[in-house]
Amino acid sequence: MTETVAGREVIVHFDGTRCIHSRNCVLRHPEVFVPNVKGAWIRPDAAPADEVIRIGQLCPSGAIRVERVGGGGVASSNLPPAVNMVHVRENGPLAFEADLRLRGEPHDSVRATLCRCGLSKNKPYCDNSHVAAGFTATGEPAARETPPLEARDGPVDLQPQPNGPLKVVGNLEIVSGTGRTVNRTRQVFFCRCGQSKNKPYCDGSHKAAGFVAD
Fold it and tell me: Whose CA is closest to 120, among 214, 3, 197?
């Protein structure tokens, strides 16, 4: 369920089901996202509008979206990037930033963190189950020699396969946790069962593991 709080200049939308508790919001602007208080904890007017928009831009999961009041419905923190990217988080999820689609339908955010440990109860999204499970997977996969993409933006369709991998279609740069581009692709299959020996890519291990997911 999304919580919406309107201020004088910006409107903040917060979807708790997408939050992975990266804490960018409360660490950068604890006066806007106030932890451990009773009552209103999102205070859009506590910082300049551009700073609040920046909070939305830095939210890796898309749980926070910020739009300007009177902005015609265009979310100011929700504009597609010039280069589509997915960051491979060390021992954690796949963090996408692109003009996203989910199974062909427009996604409500240009950011999403998707489960790759296989244990999330909110698949395809990460719910931090990897932490309790002690999931181990490198955030620094080996680089592949790939030519530059003809286009680096455009729609990216996330297509979770039934009981199988995450198929991704669209211009995409795969980026390590430290910011290196390790692959460029227009179609790729990512592991989401947590068992692949070739993470972050699928190697068919989901079949032997009996992975079950929509």
Answer: 214
Please give the C-alpha separations between residue 29 and each of 23, 41, 52, 68, 79, in angstroms, as whole numbers: 10, 12, 8, 18, 21
Nearest to 73 by CA among 15, 13, 17, 32: 13
DSSP 161-192: PTTS-EEEEEEEEEE-TTS-EEEEEEEEEE--
Note down the domain range covering 23. 2-68
> Is 177 a member of any domain?
yes
Confidence of residue 35 (pLDDT cuts 50, 70, 90): confident
Is the pTM here over 0.85, yes or no?
yes
> Beta 94-97 vs 10-15: how paired, if at all?
unpaired
- Count other Cβ atoms within 10 Å, centred on residue 77: 24
